[in-house]
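so my prof wants the structure for this chain in the tokens format not the other one, which i didnt know existed until like an hour ago. anyway here's the sequence
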Amino acid sequence: MTDQQITIPTLPDLMHGIEQWMTERADGADIPADLRAEVDRLLDTSPSTADDLFKLIAFARGCHTVAEERRARDDDGTALCFHYFGQIMLEEAVRLIGRLAVSGIEHLGETRH
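here's what i got, hopefully its the right format
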């Protein structure tokens, strides 16, 4: 038996990992198809769970980081696209927070007048 330490990643660890994956994938001149597909998938879905909320926020952060790096390279067109994608994801995250809150209130049977 070996003494291996197992660590469970925290949400900030996972968020950082997604951000790092996105910036590494977007490092070249062209945006790779898998990164474009993942962003497109998030923008085309109807989020409804806390997991979806996490993904929206993590990928929005990644989009903003990619935008900053592209802006630093004078690639303003790509930077603007990624900034815009990040903003759309954050807007969707805010809407999802509202839907989750309403769902929780309905589940508890509370009413506000």
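also thought this was worth mentioning. The radius of gyration is 17 Å.
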